[in-house]
Amino acid sequence: MAPSSVKLQELIRLIRTAKTQAEERAIIQKECADIRSSFREEDPSFRCRNVAKLLYMHMLGYPAHFGQMECLKLIASPRFSDKRVGYLGAMLLLDERQDASLLITNSIKNDMNHNSQYVQGLALCTLGCMGSSEMCRDLATEVERLLKTSNSYIKKKAALSAVHVVRKVPELIELYIPAAESLLGGKNHGVLHSAVVLITEMCVRNPEATCKFKKVVPELVQIMKNLIMSGYSPEHNVGGISDPFLQVQMLCLMRILGQNDDEVSEAMNDILAQVATNTDTSKNAGNAILYETVLTIMDIRSESGLRVLAVNILGRFLLNSDKNIRYIAMTSLLKMVQTDHNAVQRHRGTIVDCLKDTDASVKRRALDLTFALINGHNIRSMIKELLQFLDHCPAELRSDCASGIFLAAEKYAPSKRWHIDTILRVLTTAGSYVRDETVPNLIQLITNTSELYAYTVHKLYQAVLADISQQPLVQVAAWCIGEYGEFLLSGTCEEEKTVKVTEDDMLDVLEMILQSHMSSPATRGYALTSLMKLSTRISDNVDRIRKIVSIYGSCIDVELQQRAIEYNTLFKKYDHMRVAVLERMPVIEKNSQVCSDKSTKVLNDENKPFSLSKPNQTEVKIQNAANQQTVDLLDLIGISDPSSTPVVQNNQEKMVGGELLDLLGGINFGAIPSITAYNKNGLTVEFFFEKVGNNELSIQLKAKNATAKDMKEFILQAAVPKNIQIHLQAPSGSVLPALCSGCVSQTILISNPNKVSLKMRLRLSYSIEGSTVQDICEVNNFPPQTWQ
Amino acid sequence: MMQFMLLFSRQGKLRLQKWYVPLSDKEKKKITRELVQTVLARKPKMCSFLEWRDLKIVYKRYASLYFCCAIEDQDNELITLEIIHRYVELLDKYFGSVCELDIIFNFEKAYFILDEFLLGGEAQETSKKNVLKAIEQADLLQESQNEDWGGLSSDDIL
């Protein structure tokens, strides 16, 4: 078969003529076949071209692994054109995960000593791009040698290769410290830049290196001075600025060296002030330098004048017409709002204005920053701006904005009425975007504000009449109507003029909520319970309530059905208790601050006096972020009001962040339930737990094989998060007989003194019917008792 | 450091990919797909920076090509824009008014130029002149070698 002689550009042209994916695939398949046979014939003349073609096809997404060895051959060829394509192929097709990459180590080593600097450059570049830790270890000393050459073309490449080596094998930092120091003495900008990168990398990874390099600070300062003061150097000039790349890199290094060191920071003071005031801000390059300067000033121990200068630079950035600059300013201000709060406050006006910015990322940043700047003094005006923002803000920001407003209102509300008004405003504007826990939190707030019951319920009633689509609003309104319906009836309200509401009106609203297709099941639950509560608060229409409740006794929704039936029972058999059961809720105690925990488990002790037939019934309420349904366990008598959750018992363990529907949380079982850690392809691994002492856990694992063939050489390895110690004892064996006729057991000892949540990564390997199977899985379903 | 640089067209076709972190082919493809989609969905008025996974993405469109770099949290976005611009200038000088077709048909040269400008995700040479000189010399070496040693002429190598 004639070797493929299609030129690269010809092939590219051909592929581009393909009108369909299928056509393209056909062309490529044919070409790959030709290339493969050409490779087999070992003809060196077209190898370079063939690999180049392969690389093009690889970029289009087609497999090219059969070209890997050819790259090796090209690299070993004496021709520069071959080496160029060979090394390119190595960087594109090989990565450190492949064994073939190790094979080029020798070639790289040879080429690093080549008499042509361009070949040396290729080798260094490849090492610096894709060298694995083994390769780096092998070639570290070669790189170090090249660091000391007088050829600046090689020196700069060696320096950056050293950066890669140091990233892969931090222990080798020591090796490069002497050479790196001397690199700063030269004039070549490429070498200087690479040297600064190298020193920065070493200092970041090794605090000892930082100490050693603090002495180069004067040298750095001098280089910076020369850059700023020296005349126009066309070679390194970008928009009138002398080598912004080098300036930025040096500022970054100064930041690392000056952190937590007063003396070093002092030495940099002047030059930083100079750069901050003299850099031209009309072009992006200048702003890049200023940005880095600001970061450095804020991170080292700079004097307050300098810090104010930095914040002012950011303030000016906020007004820049370039949106990129505004975005950068926002991000930086956000980082420093905690440490330099007053300085950032001075720019509050500009920041709030940025809420109206056209760019979505800037808006988001402005929102975060605005929240960070709210305090007791500016709460009213800030929230006013934020409420306006909420009216028009993009959908993806609404949820965060709403939550932020709630948090801020909770912390700094100047008056209770203002607080309730604000919350109502949010609920009416962005009601469907508020987080789930807002509803119970709001209800809790309302119950705590007894003087405003009438006001609140009137406002909610009006809001719901206008719009019943926003679930959180409807839920809160329904709850309040149920609790405080009498205020609606009496029509009196100190705060505002209100309309008198009839019993029928109230029931109409609640029925409307119940029947509306827009109401979620949880909302309906609220409405039904509220209706029930009203049966004791109103006088004329109790029958109507009775009727509604009994209709829902056959509702398809199981939750509603259950409630309806229980309420029915309350009407019929326990009517004498109805008033007592449905009386006004006690004031709900504050449940720590408004937190954004997705699920909080609490115990409700309201049914204590009612535990008639079943002793020690503890009803557990859970708010699961995934669905708003409250699971009422063991609920006999319908006080299962989902809104009355935040009642915390003293001895209650608040389980935070547990997404598990741990229904009986807080109750200590004697035995911890076992879990199935792995179940795939017929292999199951079960974990059985036993607590040994306070922090130790013993896991007995049993592995079983349900397939028809034996699994041999079964090995299990496990890894756990940091702060947890793991010790695997020897397994009982390594053969898992087929069809679960036997098992392998192994003990794992876990020591978890910090009570970090337990997760485990398992790596299993076994051989079945001659072939090896390996799998890695994560075990995330450990019962909380195993680590709490 | 820069973790990777991607060049792609308005239709989402990849024209160049330089990875400075070790990832499997599958992972690279997934990242590329996702990122290309994300960047192409951005409107022209939006800013050049976005947060994606745990990286910062800096991108800029030059004619029909998007130049997209992924940098780490501590890196300076504005200087990355300068780096992108410098690379475009280098391509422009080398090819003479570069356009997407130049990069398609001479992709290997685009890589060679990039590898003279950046190494391991960092700039190795801050002088435009020096980078271009190095490429020129390397090209000359290739040509003269092939003349001296025989074999295919420089036009026919690839």
Automatic annotation (TrEMBL), chain A:
Location of the protein in the cell: Cytoplasmic vesicle membrane; Endomembrane system; Golgi apparatus
Highest taxon in the source lineage: Eukaryota
SMART domains assigned to the protein according to its UniProt record, in alphabetical order: Alpha_adaptinC2 (SM00809)
SUPFAM superfamilies, alphabetized: ARM repeat, Clathrin adaptor appendage domain
Recorded topology in the membrane: Peripheral membrane protein
Main location: membrane
Segments forming a coiled coil: none
One Pfam family matching this protein: Alpha_adaptinC2
Keyword Cell cycle recorded: no
Record keywords, A-Z: Cytoplasmic vesicle, Golgi apparatus, Membrane, Protein transport, Transport
Gene Ontology BP terms: intracellular protein transport; vesicle-mediated transport
Annotated GAE domain residues: 670-783
Membership in a protein family: Belongs to the adaptor complexes large subunit family.
PANTHER family found in the cross-reference section: ADAPTIN, ALPHA/GAMMA/EPSILON
The protein's name in its UniProt record: AP-1 complex subunit gamma
Gene giving rise to this polypeptide: AP1G2
From TrEMBL, chain B:
Coiled-coil ranges from the UniProt annotation: none
Species of the source: Erpetoichthys calabaricus (Rope fish)
Residue intervals of the AP complex mu/sigma subunit domain: 1-141
Gene3D superfamilies (alphabetical): 3.30.450.60
Compartments, record wording: Cytoplasmic vesicle membrane; Golgi apparatus; Membrane, Clathrin-coated pit
Main location: membrane
Assembly and binders: Adaptor protein complex 1 (AP-1) is a heterotetramer composed of two large adaptins (gamma-type subunit AP1G1 and beta-type subunit AP1B1), a medium adaptin (mu-type subunit AP1M1 or AP1M2) and a small adaptin (sigma-type subunit AP1S1 or AP1S2 or AP1S3). Binds to MUC1.
GO biological process terms, semicolon-separated: intracellular protein transport
Gene: AP1S2
Membrane-topology annotation of the record: Peripheral membrane protein
Keywords recorded for this protein, A-Z: Coated pit, Cytoplasmic vesicle, Golgi apparatus, Membrane, Protein transport, Transport
Keyword DNA-binding: no
Protein name: AP complex subunit sigma
Pfam families membership: Clat_adaptor_s
One GO CC term, this protein: AP-1 adaptor complex
Function: Subunit of clathrin-associated adaptor protein complex 1 that plays a role in protein sorting in the late-Golgi/trans-Golgi network (TGN) and/or endosomes. The AP complexes mediate both the recruitment of clathrin to membranes and the recognition of sorting signals within the cytosolic tails of transmembrane cargo molecules.
PROSITE patterns attached to this UniProt entry: CLAT_ADAPTOR_S (PS00989)
GO MF annotation: an example: clathrin adaptor activity
Assigned protein family: Belongs to the adaptor complexes small subunit family.
